[in-house]
Amino acid sequence: MRRLQTADDLTDLLELYVKAERLAPASRPWVLGNMVGGLDGTAAVAGRVGALSTPADARLFRELRTVPDVVLVGAETVRRERYGPVRLDAALEASRLEAGRPVAPPIAVLSGSLDIDWSIPLFADTDAGPRPLIITCASAPEARREEARAVAEVVLAGDDSVDLGSALHQLRERGAEVVLCEGGPTLLGGLAGAGLLDELCLTLTPLMGGDPLPLALTPPGAETSRFTLEHAVVDEDGTLFLRYERDRAR
Fold this sequence. Notes:
The protein has 250 residues and is an alpha/beta fold. The chain has a single domain, classed as 3-Layer(aba) Sandwich (Dihydrofolate Reductase, subunit A), CATH 3.40.430. It has eight helices and ten strands. Strands 1-9-10-8-2-7-3-4-5-6 form a ten-stranded mixed sheet, sandwiched between helices. The longest helix is centred in the first third of the chain and has 10 residues. It is globular and about 55 Å long. The relative contact order is 0.23.
């Protein structure tokens, strides 16, 4: 047994996440998930994640975006949270530039129907950050695809629905070595069920009684994957920060 590390022992919580070695497979990026949930496994309160997030978790959410080459999000999460472009503080931007990387990663939105409000900040704020990506499928309405092309780069992955493996392969061909999935539960469960989730950063807040929405919705019949705990840190308010990596020996 091991004792949990407390946040008081750390000078920088982000350092624990940044120093992890993430080696991308040959045909796709390394996929890192970041989710926050309550003690009963709920992923939202009144349809939003904000009530679950503590100040330390909110900071980690922002700062963890310095790690990936692309931030991957499902359309429902983009709609509910009214996503905007990734904005990092000056120090994190500088660290990316020093490493020869763009100042911030683009956001890629997965949507088969393209039922998206193009007026939200992610698409309307054209002066902030890199151009977003829309990952959709061949059956998406052509009129909606034309609307998407006006505000984002459109990537086709799959015929009748978005194929996650194809989507990741195409992101890898665009140079992405690490992809950060910020949910929602359907996307996270789909990645896990397809064996495409390599790492999960999970924040548990000491709260119960949210929506009946689990952290991950795995497709029926999907195989299970075992993960290994890499670190566990508890904040002074009882928030628990966990980082797991998929056990490839099984």
